[in-house]
Specification:
Distance between the termini: 44 Å
Order of helices and strands: EEEHEHEHEHEEEEHHHEH
Helix content: 25-40%
CATH topology: Spore Coat Polysaccharide Biosynthesis Protein SpsA, Chain A
Length: about 250
């Protein structure tokens, strides 16, 4: 079985929520919940945190996790991941977003298998149908459109696809998909990706995966169950705490 590294990129200066990776959820930092789930993924040969901040590195150490200090100037988490794994040997890398406290370990395994398999995918990621129409207009919720074989066509913070005739009913099958913040890369493609400068669409949308599409990458999008709410802003924290409790992840004090 070909080895796959798991990396959680964790910078302090999030535009919408500085320091969110250490924001407490049910009494524990957000990072701790992500680490718990990632450690359950059997396909990861090792797991580390890539950060630019000593406070994050200290919490990672408390969790028994290796922390790699990286440049504060990276334009994306992908660039941070690439620096963190430099000099390490692995067939693939999974970028595990630090704001998804209920990320599914089996989904990590599935993506790891895809990019180390024989189908020639450069990257793999995931999406889940959007059930709540209020999420469509939220620019923090990234939408994705993909082909029948899973090939990613475009990612956007805007509502895609656009419903031209609002009076027409939507098709019975899911139309709108939320992108789940989880990426797997073939290591050789990751090296090529970070060697390229951010493209125009990436700079406009602030979505690193658009650089990969700009380079002509084959990105496989798999559909998955909802991972629960992500934490993009402080206002998202209560919903994430409720989801953790509903999933039975919180051990309440007697």
């Amino acid at each position: 079985m070909r080895s796959v590294l798991g990396v959680i990129p964790a910078r302090w200066g999030s535009t919408r929520f500085p320091g969110k990776i250490l924001h407490p959820l049910c009494g524990r930092p957000l990072l701790a919940w992500v680490v718990d789930r990632a450690r359950e993924a059997r396909r990861l040969s090792s797991l580390l945190v890539a950060t630019d901040d000593s406070r994050i590195a200290a919490v990672a150490a408390e969790l028994g996790l290796e922390a790699v200090m990286t440049s504060p100037d990276h334009p994306s988490g992908t660039d941070r991941v690439a620096e963190a794994i430099r000099g390490r040997s692995a067939a693939g890398v999974v970028n595990i977003q630090g704001d998804e406290p209920l990320v599914d370990p089996s989904l990590i395994n599935r993506l790891a298998d895809l990019i180390t398999g024989s189908d020639g995918w450069d990257m793999a990621t995931a999406a889940t149908p959007i059930q709540d129409p209020r999420l469509l207009a939220n620019p923090s919720v990234v939408k994705v459109v993909f082909a029948a074989d899973g090939t990613a066509l475009y990612f956007s913070r805007a509502v895609i696809p656009h419903q031209r005739d609002r009076q027409d009913p939507l098709p019975p099958e899911p139309v709108y998909f939320r992108h789940i913040g989880l990426y797997a890369y073939r290591t050789e493609f990751l090296t090529r990706l970070v060697a390229a400068p951010p493209c125009a669409t990436e700079r406009v949308e602030k979505l690193e995966q658009l650089r990969a599409l700009h380079l002509g990458a084959r990105i496989c999008v798999v559909t998955a169950e909802s991972q629960g709410p992500g934490v993009d802003t402080p206002e998202d924290a209560p919903a994430a705490e409720a989801a953790l409790r509903a999933a039975g992840r919180v051990k309440e004090n007697p």
